[in-house]
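Translate sequence into structure tokens.
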Amino acid sequence: MPLNRRTFLGRSAAAGAGVAMAGGAVVGSAGAAQAAGHGHGHGHGRPAKRYSFTVMGTTDLHGNVFNWDYFTDKEYDDSAHNDIGLAKISTLVDQVRREKGHRNTLLIDAGDTIQGTQLSYYYAKVDPITARRGPVHPMARAMNAIGYDAAALGNHEFNYGIPVLRKFEEQCDFPLLGANALDAKTLRPAFAPYVIKRMHTPCGRDVRVAVLGLTNPGIAIWDKANVGGKMVFPGLEEQAAKWVPKLRSMGADVVIVSAHSGSSGTSSWGDQLPYVENAAALVAEQVPGIDAILVGHAHVEIAEHFVTNKETGKRVVLSEPAKWGQRLTLFDFDLVWEKGRWTVEKAGSRVLNSNTVPEDPEVTSLLRREHRKVVEYVNQVIGTSVVAMSTADAPWKDEPIIDLINQVQTETVKAALAGGEYAALPVLSQASCFSRTAGIPAGEVTIKDAAGLYPFENTLEARLITGAQLKDYLEYSARYYVRTAAGGPVDTAKLTNADGIPDYNYDAVSGVTYDVDIAQPAGSRIVGLSFEGKAIDPAARFVFAVNNYRASGGGNFPHVPGAQQLWANSDEIRNTIIGWVREKGSVDPAAFASVGWRLTREGAPVFP
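Result follows.
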């Protein structure tokens, strides 16, 4: 695979840096809308000049270089036999470059790059890239080797704090784009908003391809602790409407948006923000001058989807290549030179499946040492378990493995509040089933077992809530179940994820007992909500141990985002679990597990 890049792209880490030109690329920052120049003219009476090129795209790589699952410590596989990782993507990219000609292709990404696996976690926290003489991030090394031209910022780029993100940006040989990631004080772009690439055509008339990067406004909620007071994230439509005309005035012949935002038009944050979370289709519909949008964030596969712009009637092509490097999007553009300019005559998209090719040995060999380090790390034994525990039934049963999360959170919050004003209040705790394949084995327990139980970088908070608010919270959570009439059989394959609610947005709460009557409509399902055997007083006060995602509004659960914060911790919950297991030495569900909630239909247990 050729590892030579066509261009090295300058970056503007701070706003106002003007325009950097290097190797045929223009990287823009605030106020950089100055003409790149046409200067080509056109011939009369000759056949039209044509040019075709391809833009390849990935998204939501989430720290996957290898086709490897660090939580199970074996090759990745799922029910659809997808493969993952940049090493697979590299092979596909190389094939496309050989077919199309390297100079006729670009490679971009739509964000969520540096969080999601133990590989990416290790180089953010265990052997951090921010340390003096620290390592180069594996994702930067792999993406540099493959030769990316640009990547949009995803919301998970901010999980480890701005210093880690800035170091990653510094290590990349391509710009991280975020036209709507603004400095909170100056309201100017904190990252390069766009890059303009020149495609050299056989007829000598270059095609200027602009890539505009847009990220998710939800960062302001989800990573408030890291970005509050430092950066703000306005809506995608508003910022696209500002930048696309500038790019056209600078001479862009083709405008592509790389958007870390799904296409559904929905949001998970209710009325907390005046923006849309999944706005890619709205951008295509509302902002004239866009030719294609690489979609990210939603983790779905969209091979080709057309949206008609309301103002121009022009069709804009959208594509989303699933997640984790499972797919590679190909945008194919056919251009014609007419009236002194290049015009997009035809644009379409398709996706390639990474399970059709082997891993690129150049990429795997480049990062073999880092991979081995992380495998050794996740296999460290931290304790033992008396019995095996699994999340397989956790979406519909109160399982000991979820009780373990709640026990750790409850103990941690009680210890933090001990001796203080709120020490006498009862502590409740919420937890979700993040993966239906997580488990703690009988016998030795390793870091990967504990980390697999909690794959996200969430941290722990304590909030003050009332009995009435708790009831509302549980009713909201119980929307997750499909309404199922009493008497008939229950198919667990069709019981959950009502209205597309993901598993991580269903919370079980420990410290109280209650039934969830799935025969009732959503909003009227919580029955017999009790504390220590007595019906809960709506005015009673409780300490609620809750993760920062939920506390900051993730999932749009009621009351908690506005509730008084009593305590917060900067350590990831999974590290707290790992530390708890290390300290106890042995995990015995008999010491903490109980059935606090159950599914019922008109009083009869669904699973007796």
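Note: The chain has a mean pLDDT of 92.
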